[in-house]
Amino acid sequence: MGIGLVVAGIVLWTGGLSWFGRLPGDLRWETDRTRLYMPIASMVVVSLVLSLLAWIFRQR
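Below the sequence we write its predicted C-alpha cells.
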C-alpha cells in the first residue's frame, strides 16, 4: 500500500493526471458573478476505480 501511495504521489507531482477534472462530462458554467463546476464524469471514474479496488480486495 505504501508503494501505491508513492507511485500515486509521483504521478500527481509530474502532472500525469492533468486531464482529470476536464473530462467531457464535467460541467462548467460561468457568468460574471457566478462559477459552477460539477465534475460528474470525473466522479464516475473515481467511483469505478474504487469499486474495482474494493472488488479486488474482497476476492482475497
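The radius of gyration is 15 Å.
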